[in-house]
């Protein structure tokens, strides 16, 4: 893939090779998903070592790296380093444990550089999504949108959060998802005040808000969407909070464009919520990048000063959480463009009453 050539072309001068050990980055550079393996990239070669579980499929499908059956991996790696005159190797510092690095340093005849440079290069290359990546993300979001419509007919008083979460997850998997982007959050009533509530046996009641934060994955690429719906008659306060979150969400979304620091976009929604009297009730960041991982960088948050660039896929998800009472969150995913953003999520955001 051209991605491997990009990585080879950006290796720092004092690194002879990149050691790609994480499943997500092996998949990004080769297009091949495996739970184990090592990809080595030098300026003029790329080789991936796979064990017997993956060698047959890997040999058929990987086209831009030599595929080698893993045997005595330590001996194979040292032989590779000698053949390719590799003396210094960069690692994915954000994905490799200290224990793993230490064990490699003990057995490999190279210097393993334990600085963040290679990791930064990899994550920067993954930030801007290609048309092929966007095709997968849009397919995942289409399944997510369709599942939301399906769930509107499933949510009824008397059912538990767990009942509905299982129905939601199975529907995505039955309708084209190759996996779940993350563990589904489905929270009703007072549990909605916890942004990452775990679905349990709490029963849906008349007057509840039900918040669903979920996403399908297609070929590893994630979608992410949150919608809050009302079950029966709700209070004036619930209605007012919902409308405030919706205004904050759409206003922040309209502010997204290339060239804006991430913290400034976060501030658009945060100011609206805080000035309305809910300071401290919106504790998380406004959003995050996503792709092969559900949480990638950069992030719309008060502490992220990265500037947005065209091609980023970001979530926009303000919320208000009133402890022990209820919560509201509304989330779309968007792709940043030069003069705005392309909203990928297609589901209704106006308050739906069931």
Question: Would you summarize the structure shown here?
Answer:
The protein is α+β, with helices and mostly antiparallel strands and 354 residues long.
Characterization of the model:
The structure is a single chain. The protein is α+β, with helices and mostly antiparallel strands and 354 residues long. It has two domains: 2-127, Creatine Amidinohydrolase, Chain A, domain 1, CATH 3.40.350; 131-343, Creatine Amidinohydrolase, CATH 3.90.230.10. It is 36% helix and 22% strand. It is built from ten helices and 19 strands. The chain has helices at residues 2-9, 23-30, 55-61, 73-83, 98-107, 117-127, 131-152, 161-174, 236-255, 262-278, and strands at 17-20, 38-42, 46-50, 66-69, 88-91, 111-113, 179-180, 185-188, 209-214, 216-218, 221-222, 225-230, 287-289, 296-300, 313-316, 319-322, 326-329, 332-337, 340-343. It has a six-stranded mixed β-sheet with strand order 4-3-2-1-5-6, with helices on both faces. The chain has a three-stranded antiparallel β-sheet with strand order 7-10-11. The longest helix has 22 residues, at 131-152. The model has no long low-confidence stretch (mean pLDDT 97).
Instruction: Enumerate how many helices there are, as a single number.
Output: 10
N→C terminal distance? 48 Å
- What are the secondary-structure elements, in order, as H or E? HEHEEHEHEHEHHHEEEEEEHHEEEEEEE
If classified by CATH, what would the architecture of the largest domain be?
A: Alpha-Beta Complex
Averaged pLDDT: 97
Number of domains: 2
Mind telling me the CATH class of the largest domain?
Alpha Beta
């Amino acid at each position: 893939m051209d991605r491997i050539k990009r990585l080879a072309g950006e290796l720092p001068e004092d690194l002879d090779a990149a050691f790609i050990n994480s499943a997500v980055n092996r998949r990004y550079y080769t297009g091949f998903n495996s739970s184990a393996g090592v990809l080595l990239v030098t300026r003029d070669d790329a080789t991936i070592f796979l064990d017997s579980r993956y060698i047959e499929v890997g040999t058929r499908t990987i086209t831009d790296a030599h595929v080698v059956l893993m045997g005595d991996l330590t001996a194979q790696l040292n032989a590779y380093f000698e053949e390719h005159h590799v003396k210094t190797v960069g690692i994915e510092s954000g994905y490799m444990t200290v224990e793993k690095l230490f064990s490699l340093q003990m057995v490999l005849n190279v210097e393993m550089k334990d600085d963040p440079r290679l990791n930064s290069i990899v994550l920067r290359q993954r930030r801007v999504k290609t048309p092929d990546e966007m095709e997968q993300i849009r397919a995942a979001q289409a399944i997510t949108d369709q599942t939301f419509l399906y769930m509107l007919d499933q949510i009824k008083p008397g059912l538990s959060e767990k009942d509905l979460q299982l129905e939601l997850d199975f529907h995505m998997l039955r309708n084209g998802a190759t996996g779940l982007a993350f563990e589904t959050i489905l929270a009703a009533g007072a549990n909605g005040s916890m942004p990452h509530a775990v679905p349990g046996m709490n029963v849906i009641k008349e007057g509840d808000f039900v918040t669903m934060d979920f996403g399908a994955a297609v070929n590893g690429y994630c979608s992410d969407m949150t919608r809050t719906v009302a079950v029966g008659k709700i209070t004036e306060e619930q209605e007012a909070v919902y409308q405030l979150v919706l205004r904050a969400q759409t206003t922040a979304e309209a502010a997204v464009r290339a060239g804006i620091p991430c913290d400034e976009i976060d501030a658009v929604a945060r100011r609206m919520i805080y000035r309305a009297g809910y300071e401290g009730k919106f504790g998380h960041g406004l959003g995050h990048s996503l792709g092969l991982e559900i949480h990638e960088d950069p992030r719309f948050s008060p502490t992220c000063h990265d500037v947005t660039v065209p091609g980023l896929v970001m979530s926009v998800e303000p919320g208000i959480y009133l402890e022990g009472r209820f919560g509201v969150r509304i989330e779309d995913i968007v792709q940043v463009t030069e003069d705005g953003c392309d909203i990928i999520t297609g589901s209704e955001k106006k308050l739906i009453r069931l």
